[in-house]
Write the structure tokens for this entry.
Amino acid sequence: MHSYRETIKTKGNFCPFLLKSHLTISLLMALQSLGIIPARFASSRFPGKPLVMINGKSMIMRVYEQARKSKTLNKIIVATDDERIFNHVLEAGGEVMMTAGSHVSGTSRIGEVVSALSSSGKCPYDIVVNIQGDEPFIEPAQIDLAVSVFQNPEAKIGTLISRVSDTADLMNPNVVKVVTDHSGRAMYFSRSPIPFLRGGTDGDWAKQSEYFRHIGLYAFRTQVLLQLIDLPAVASEVAESLEQLRWMYHGYSIHTALTDIETIGIDAPEDLLKLTNNA
């Protein structure tokens, strides 16, 4: 695979590459995509998580290297507020930018990166992808699928969903659920099981109706992202602790793409046990 890499100090050359079958050549020619991986050292549940070693390689560099396998990303940057992470990524050969320590969300942090690049005239990117920094084995195909949403010229924000087949997941507030319309646009996100199954058998909803979970990989048109970071918080967002409800409240639709790939996210040290058979 050919790739395009450009560092803060050194500019490389562009090389054309082939898209997977579900993407079109017109998408490659028309869209330039930037992947940003937010990474902060401080975490109440897992301090220093980006630098934890998994079979001899840090989590953040595993995410970075998986993202590099994407067929649609032209550039990848780690966005951090910590010098330890900054130096580690730089020494490992990755590209990284320092951001403020005041950000309360990954969206805000990547917004700072895009604003800085735009101000310096170094942001020729049509699409920005927010890549979770705690999924060391993220599938590159998922990134490409999120970008493919923008083959629809009406799409402003893209994200991924998957079917929920386990009732325990459906009832788990840490698993965010989503309802979409006939075209795949999200109608609402919630930590509660939605839609409510009136007359359903308790404890067996997932087998009686169709449910979808949200996978927190976002892609944005660049100008839309810069608009989103200035929006004020809203009641539904605060109640559910889901920032995408702010965007929807203010009139931004979110287009979804369905995936059957399940990735493993690391929220706490004990979650590393999930990776035993994946490293």
In short: The two ends are 22 Å apart (CA to CA). Residues 19 and 71 are 5 Å apart (CA to CA). The first strand starts at residue 33 and ends at 39. The mean pLDDT is 85.
